[in-house]
Amino acid sequence: MTLIGFAWKNLRRRPVRTLLTVLGVSVAVGAVVALVGLAGSFEQALLDLFQRRGVDLVVVRKGGLQQINSILDEKLGARIRQISGVREVSPGLLQPFSFPDVDIFGVIARGMPPDSFLLKDLKIVEGRLFGPGDRRVVVVGSALAASLGKKVGDSVELAPGHKFTILAIYESENLLENGTMITPLLDLQQMMDLEGKVTAFNVVAELHTPEELQHLKAEIESLAPYLRAQTLRENVASSVELQLAKAAAWLTSAVALLLGGLGMINTMLTAVFERTRELALLRAVGWRRGRLMRLVLFEAVLLALAGAVVGTILGWAMIQLLSRIPAAGRMVAGQIPAAVVLKGFVLALGVGVLGGLYPAYRAAKLLPTEGLRHE
């Protein structure tokens, strides 16, 4: 029998303890897969939302903790457009709204001018896109429309006394975009008492090389001391909400991993104590210390890998459940990045090795004579 086969046989002799340890590790891995996976997929969706439109730079106000609180003069767009190397510029105003009557909160309304390049490839599945003469209208993502129970021609009240008519419903491959709404920039500005103000400018460059983008960043930031031009990755990385979500996900996962590791150590130490006679006899028949250590480590690693498999399934099931809840489905894609699954397995393997090291060391220190004294 191979050493791994011997280790697996030992685990099967203690089914209840083995199952409990596997569940402890699986909770930790499930937390990594579900929570970190959600944060990572949301970050990627945010990047894809603008990459698909060809955006190279996002211009915001320097020093703000949240982009949504960045307020810039809309007239800056014309000055940015005059910079050599800039192909297109689109101003945008972001504003969150909630619909407590249907338990939907934090819906982002994006104010854009009718001629914005960001609207050019928007896939309208019902109705039509707004033009220069349309007022107090909104186009809604299909996921959001389904959650609100609205269709073209219905009205939505974004704020008390401010009703907008749904002019169209659009479909997007990007789940994040599918859960938002778009209004004429002027309407959103007037409703929020922000006439002539925008949150950010989205810039498309003539050339997309890193050198050219660095040059454009410097040129744009020279227009005013409070301007900050960022690449898409820099802009997403500066999102306070996203960073807090990632930190909370890793903190929760770290606590679960710590508890799983402690459970692993306890299980393996107990197993070594209960098998003192058996392990001492193995030493007596010629097993070297290193072989005995490998046996215990293999048992710990097998427990960890089994926990990783179960945890991945649990994490996947959790994300699937969230994606089917109306209030959360518009934000959760139901997909797990392969990199996150790999991280879960690597962390589980680390828990197995670290949790098995000390018990393996204790097993290797046993002397053959200790088996005779152990009852």
Describe the fold and architecture.
The chain is α+β, with helices and mostly antiparallel strands. It folds into two domains: 3-46 and 242-373, no CATH class; 64-225, no CATH class. Helix content is 55%, strand content 19%. The strands form two sheets. Strands 1, 3, 4, 5, 6, 7, 8, 9, 11 and 12 form a ten-stranded mixed sheet that branches. Strands 2-10 form a two-stranded antiparallel ribbon. Strand 3 (86-99) and strand 4 (104-112) form a beta hairpin. Helix 1 packs across helix 11, helix 2 (15-51) packs antiparallel against helix 9 (240-274) and helix 11 (289-323) packs antiparallel against helix 13. It is elongated and about 95 Å long. It starts with a helix and ends with a helix. The relative contact order is 0.19.
